[in-house]
Design a protein that fits this description.
Residues 539-769 form the Nidogen G2 beta-barrel domain. This protein has 14 helices and 79 strands. The chain is mainly beta.
């Protein structure tokens, strides 16, 4: 956005014109489009530091905030503006909204500008340029209510290249992730509007770690919004408006907008007219959904790599001055966590070029005018006023090295590769050819084209997961050996499929055509592929995948599993870059010659000569690539299988790679050079084959060794057999690989391949003279454009589909804003780079065709209370309590005014529960004619009966045996006052319902109501003696298999009544233990209610940070992990017990902890070492169960009965919940969809549910142990850390509330919370039972 000339404000243009001007742009906000700032503009500079606050700024004219008027403003380091001075940051930085003071928060987080890490600038401004620009934004965002808004004053605050707070460390350099953002408050005499601006690359970190919990790798997302603060002396909470709650919503700040300009957000924040709360502009933007990042032309810092898209800039590997290529080492945390990020930066030697050009009378909002370094700059904006800006060669904080503009003058902006100094022109900087001129590979022994279109395949088995060919078509078999008989793919077309019913199998960029035997999909013009998968011609493409291998390097076995692969392909010149992370060094070094691993992507997306087609045009996104490579002279052999599994929602190709066999050992420090080569591919229906030989050289100083290998390649895919074969496509094509590059860097643990490819006719060794630039990649088209060759060396550029521009510069088309999408009713259009996708609105889901959105029948999911009726409506539903009940339908309670007796109320509720869940069998009380409980109550059939008093409590009575069943003889309820034992027993039976579980304690009373001396937990072996008052006799508690010798007074009754089966209550004597930094807290439970007044500190552990906590019910010991001391300790709950450290070595960041009281073992996660380990409870017999494919393991839970282990990994790129046996066998992923930051995990042995609390999705969810039956319990959590289940409740610690929160498992309602007097973060939580649960 170019600043305005210093002229009087023009009359406001029509709001519609402003809206169209703003919506015409498609790209993100450039840093130079912020409001002008700098000390030369009159800005004041906030003192650098961690928690600084400005002196009060006296405003020339008061501004309105909500209903009040303020004359002073304060600016704080932590991304916040207020009308009063700030409290200490510990009182507001880590807490959720609302704050108790007025707050305008463009990015509230723990920011630190110490040691020159950025600056905070602020000023009041009345210049016409600033006021005019603010007015235009406001008028566009509020076209009806602010069409004539003319501000008189503006207040600007800019946070430039500021960093997150970090603990000082000599081992780890400061993070290079720096943020830039701006807040502008524009006001007139009656109204105030806020503009929040976030430029592209402006947000490189999205949250900060709390200081008191810094050692725990957990970030709180930044808060963005507005708070009125406490509004009167009664400390009443004022209104507030929150824009972000998750990390994804923070990321979307610079990608989305509520007034049509990505990165710009407008809000009406104050008025003399009634304003009940903040009013946002409503042109567009939804922070709650994930949106793809725009192509960012500058590189992030190292630790940001895991969050961004891979672009050509950060995957280019080769510089025109080879010796100047820099591969900075990753941070230690990346190495520990196994991050599969790629961050490659370069030093550019280009010279600056001058800036200049005419100013614009209106904001210039088309992205095509904004290359990385603008061609024109407003005459009123001196580049020198924006200190630290990437203009004209000025140092740019946050980038690696100095970034300058291109030497070359002309009309086009510099390509990213020129800016970064890594041109891939094969005539410059390519590895030198061999002395023999680099002869093409031998085609000796390659199979020739076979007649009749039969696919002759090499000797590779077809994998079991070959893509299915659809109903009505069958694969009869593929089984080939070179030189033997062959089989071909054949189809059974008895059941013809047509476009009418199956067009949904085609890509959204394809059309469907019916043929005699079935239908086929064909890509539309300007797209290519096999019809089921179509990609835009000329656009860049990305590949994500995993690589696993079992290799012998020389004679040394090396294994690796699911390491990350990323590839980036520049489609309009055939460059393909591949990076594979965390392959062990010996294997990575030995794989350097195997450029075919990345060469597959070169063949898939090779530059096409006229009349010739690259691989993706045949295979689409589902195929299998098999290679067998034989090395010489040692004849080592390795087999590589690459399986493509389709396109993800962002149109990235997903691929799995498996490498098996033996490869020659290559010593460290040797470099590998592969000369350019040519390969001939033979095409048949559903198969492509190739055979070639390749030389490569190993060099180190003066050592130069030449070796070779032979490679057989076989690619199988699903071709549509119903359409006639295209006669113009030859059966033999040649792939020219003009440039090859392979490199392994041990510091980053990255194996890289890069190739430049073009596909065309089979030709001789010499290329024709006068190659068109479209064919050799020397054209100047944008990398999102297609190059069209003309006569001689002439050519034209055309932007790829989904982009617009002149072909030299192309920007994304926002199909959603332009209305050119094809999303149907009840769906939402989500713009993507070069494309878009459709998502169903809330309350709708995709039908089987994956295009149409149909209503979700929430009533079938039993979301209402059992005593309520559910009414499904389009996109929603409602619940209404039954007659005789009151509530909101989600929670219904008996209505006292209904006139029903307690028996009739319970009877109606049980009947409603059975009607809602026909499979359930709740007890339906039997009532007499007056509505009272009948003395005899039965559940379903004889033999399951008991006597009840007036409140349905079970009472003792004689029994008869009738046909083998015990039937109680009930009379009028006993009038004898119930004893303590009886009252305790009856209270439990009322809650338990049904026969008590084997692990549930029921006091045993004699006929007179006295405690029986021998008391046991149900049918378990855990027994003890009690005195006459029911108190346990110390030292009598038994071990399994033995019974204490208690002296009985009265023989226990031989038959006990069976209690009601419809209630599941908690046990008595249960309490919670929670970790709070340097102490472990004790919180008793009364039933499931928190006894907050009884809470106390159990253990004080000075200098510790206790994170994980669990309890051994057998020996009454509490165990915990300490990330500050890097230890695991335990302590008895007996009075006076001292803590004992049991593991004190080999730990970095021990977090989650789980105790198996059956097997006397413990399990823990270490997010620093990325390990899961186990040991005996005394720390002996320690063993690492898992140390691969873990990034951020945190919570862990054990099911000792079934022998299962569960854990979470909050890897931000691929969060998941996994399981295995307790021995570490049968590891598998249970959940990896729709989760964000699964911090807490608990296994309930009674309900057999595995449940987790997610700080990313804000949900509490449960699933069965096999991953089925997933359901949401609560979807409005704040920031949960740890969770435990007990009875019908969950209890979790929350970092926003700094407390313990309880949630009802059945209703999902929040039922209570406990906030300790000392405010600090709570970590792990566990429940302490008075017995060991069996969980049958």
């Amino acid at each position: 956005i170019r600043p305005l000339e210093a002229l009087p404000l023009p009359l406001p243009p029509p709001p519609l014109l402003l809206l169209l001007l703003l919506l015409s742009r498609a790209g993100a906000l450039h840093p130079d489009e912020l409001f002008p700032y700098g000390q030369s503009r009159g800005d004041q500079l906030l003192q650098e530091g961690d928690d600084e606050s400005s002196a009060p700024v006296k405003l020339a004219s008061p501004l309105r905030f909500y209903e009040a008027q303020f004359s002073y403003l304060y600016v704080g380091t932590n991304g916040i503006i207020s009308t009063q001075d700030f409290p200490r940051e510990t009182q507001y930085v880590d807490d959720d909204f609302p704050t108790d003071f007025p707050a305008i928060a463009p990015f509230l987080a723990d920011i630190d500008t110490s040691q020159g890490r950025g600056q905070v600038l602020y000023r009041e401004d009345t210049s016409l340029a600033v006021l005019g620009l603010a007015a235009r934004y406001v008028r566009a965002g509020f076209p009806r209510t602010a069409a004539r808004f003319t501000p008189t004053h503006a207040f600007l605050a800019t946070w430039e290249q500021v960093g997150a707070y970090e603990e000082a460390s000599s081992r780890v350099p400061p993070s290079e992730e720096l943020n830039t953002f701006q807040a502008v408050l524009a006001s007139d005499e009656s109204d105030t509007y806020a503009l929040l601006l976030y430029p592209a690359n402006g947000l490189q970190f999205f949250g900060t770690r709390p200081k008191e919990s810094y050692n725990v790798q957990l970030e709180l997302p930044a808060r963005v919004g507005f708070c009125r603060g406490e509004v009167d002396d009664s400390k009443r909470e004022g209104p507030y408006f929150s824009l972000t709650s998750t990390e994804q919503s923070v990321k979307n700040l610079y990608q989305q907008s509520n007034l049509g300009v990505p990165g710009v957000w407008a809000f009406h924040i104050g008025s003399t007219s009634p304003l009940d709360n903040i009013r946002p502009a409503t042109v567009g933007g939804d922070l709650t959904k994930a949106h793809p990042s725009p192509p960012l032309e500058q590189s992030f810092g190292p630790t940001a790599a895991a969050e961004r898209d891979y672009t050509e800039d950060n995957l280019d590997y080769y510089d025109e001055n080879e010796g100047e290529v820099e591969y900075p080492p990753g941070e230690p945390e990346d190495a520990w966590n196994g991050h599969s990020s790629i961050d490659v930066s370069f030093q550019s030697k280009a010279e600056p070029r001058p800036l200049g050009g005419p100013a614009s009378p209106l904001p210039q909002l088309t992205a095509s005018d904004r290359p990385l370094y603008p061609e024109a700059e407003s005459a009123t904006l001196d580049p020198q006023t924006k200190e630290g800006r990437a203009l004209g060669g000025v140092d740019t904080p946050g980038l690696n090295g100095r970034v300058k503009a291109s030497r070359q003058q002309g009309t086009r902006g510099p390509a990213p590769s020129e800016i970064e100094g890594d041109s891939l022109d094969p005539t410059r900087g390519a590895p030198p050819p061999y002395a023999d001129g680099g002869a093409p590979p031998s085609e000796e022994g390659a199979p020739s084209a076979h007649p009749e279109g039969k696919a002759v395949l090499l000797n590779y088995p077809v994998p079991a997961h070959t893509p299915p060919l659809g109903r009505g078509r069958q694969v009869l078999g593929v089984e080939d050996v070179i030189g033997s008989s062959t089989e071909v793919f054949t189809y059974n077309a008895a059941n013809k499929e047509t476009c009418e019913h199956h067009h949904g199998q085609c890509s959204q960029h394809a059309f469907c055509t019916d043929y005699a035997t079935g239908f086929c999909c064909h890509c539309q013009s300007r797209f290519y592929g096999n019809g089921k998968h179509c990609l835009p011609e000329g656009a860049p493409h990305r590949v994500n995948g995993k690589v696993s291998g079992h290799l012998r390097v020389g004679h040394t076995p090396v294994h690796f599993t699911n390491v990350d692969l990323h590839a980036y392909i520049v489609g309009n010149d055939g460059r393909a870059y591949t990076a594979i992370s965390h392959i062990p060094q010996p294997a990575a070094q030995a794989l350097l010659p195997l450029t075919p691993i990345g060469g597959l992507f070169g063949w898939l997306f090779a530059l096409q000569k006229p009349g010739w087609e690259n691989g993706f045009s045949f295979t689409g996104a589902t195929f299998t690539h098999e290679m067998e490579v034989t090395f010489y002279p040692g004849e080592e052999r390795v087999r590589i299988t690459q399986t493509a599994e389709g396109l993800d929602p962002e149109n990235y190709l997903s691929i799995k790679t498996n490498i098996q066999g033996q490869v020659p050992y290559i010593p460290a420090n040797f470099t590998v050079h592969v000369a350019p080569y040519k390969e001939i591919y033979h095409y048949s229906d559903s198969a492509v084959t190739s055979t070639s030989s390749r030389d490569y050289s190993l060099t180190l100083g003066t050592i130069n060794q030449t070796r070779s290998y032979r490679v057989y390649q076989n690619i199988t895919y699903e071709a549509c057999r119903h359409s006639p074969r295209h006669p113009a496509v030859p059966t033999t094509q040649q792939l020219n690989v003009d440039w090859v590059f392979a490199l392994y860097t041990d510091e980053e643990r990255l194996l890289r391949f890069a190739v430049t490819n073009q596909v065309g006719p089979v030709e001789g060794d010499s290329d024709p003279i006068g190659v068109n630039p479209c064919y050799d990649g020397s054209h100047t088209c944008d990398m999102r454009a297609q190059c069209h060759p003309g006569a001689g060396v002439d050519y034209t550029c055309e932007c790829a589909s989904g982009y617009q521009g002149d072909g030299r510069g192309c920007v994304d088309v926002n199909e959603c804003a332009a209305g050119s999408h094809r999303c149907g009713p009840n769906s939402v259009c989500i713009n993507l780079l070069g494309s878009y996708r459709c998502e169903c609105r809330s309350g709708y889901e995709f039908a089987d065709d994956r295009h149409t959105c149909v209503d979700v029948d929430e009533c079938s999911e039993n979301r209402c209370h059992p005593s309520a009726t559910c009414y499904n409506t389009p996109g929603s539903f409602s619940c209404q309590c039954h007659p005789g009940y009151r509530g909101d339908g989600f929670q219904c309670t008996p209505d006292p005014s209904s006139g029903l007796t307690p028996c009739e109320e319970r009877q109606r509720q049980a009947q409603a529960q059975h009607a809602a869940s026909p499979g359930s069998r709740p007890h339906v009380p039997q009532c007499d004619e007056r509505g009272g409980f009948l003395p005899l109550q039965c559940h379903g059939s004889p033999g399951f009966c008991w006597c009840g008093d007036l409140q349905l409590h079970a009472v003792f009575c004689p029994w008869l045996t009738i046909k083998g069943f015990f039937v109680p003889i009930c009379s009028e309820p006993t009038q004898r006052p119930r004893t303590v034992c009886e009252r305790w027993r009856e209270n439990l039976l009322e809650h338990y319902g049904g026969t008590p579980r084997d692990d549930q304690y029921v006091p045993q009373c004699d006929d007179l109501g006295h405690f029986i001396p021998l008391q046991c937990h149900g049918k378990s072996d855990f027994c003890w003696c009690v005195d006459k008052d029911g108190r346990e006799v110390q030292g009598t508690r038994s071990q399994p298999g033995t019974t204490p010798a208690c002296i009985p007074t009265v023989a226990p009754p031989t038959v006990r009544p069976v209690p009601r089966p419809d209630v599941t209550p908690p046990s008595v004597g249960t309490f919670l233990l929670y970790a709070q930094g340097q102490q472990i807290g004790h919180l008793p439970l009364n039933g499931t209610r928190l006894q907050k007044d009884m809470a106390k500190t159990l253990l004080s552990l000075h200098g510790s940070i206790v994170v994980g906590i669990d309890y051994d019910c057998r020996e009454r010991m509490v165990y915990w992990t300490d990330v500050a001391g890097r230890t695991i300790s335990r302590a008895s709950l007996e009075p006076g017990a001292e803590p004992e450290t049991i593991v004190n070595s080999g730990l970095i960041s021990p977090e989650g902890l789980a105790i198996d009281h059956f097997r006397r073992t413990m399990y823990w996660t270490d997010s620093g070492l990325d390990k899961i380990e186990r040991a005996r409870l005394d720390g002996s017999e320690r063993k690492a169960l898992f140390h691969t494919d873990l990034v951020n393991p945190r919570a862990i839970a054990v099911d000792p009965i079934r022998g299962n282990l569960y854990w979470t990994d909050w890897n931000r790129e691929a969060p998941k919940i996994e399981t295995s046996s307790l021995e570490g066998e049968n590891r598998r992923i249970l959940v990896n969809k729709d989760i964000g930051l699964p911090n807490g995990l608990t296994f309930d042995p009674f309900s057999k549910l595995l449940c987790w609390a997610d700080a990313g999705t804000k949900k509490l969810e449960c699933t069965l142990p096999d991953g089925t039956g997933r359901r949401v319990i609560q979807n409005h959590l704040n920031y949960p850390f740890s969770i435990v289940s007990y009875a019908d409740h969950f209890y979790h610690t929350d970092w926003r509330r700094d407390g313990v929160i309880s949630v009802n498992r059945d209703s999902g309602q929040f039922t209570d919370e406990y906030l300790p007097e000392q405010r600090s973060h709570l970590y792990g939580i566990t429940a302490v039972y008075p017995y060991c649960p069996t969980g049958k």
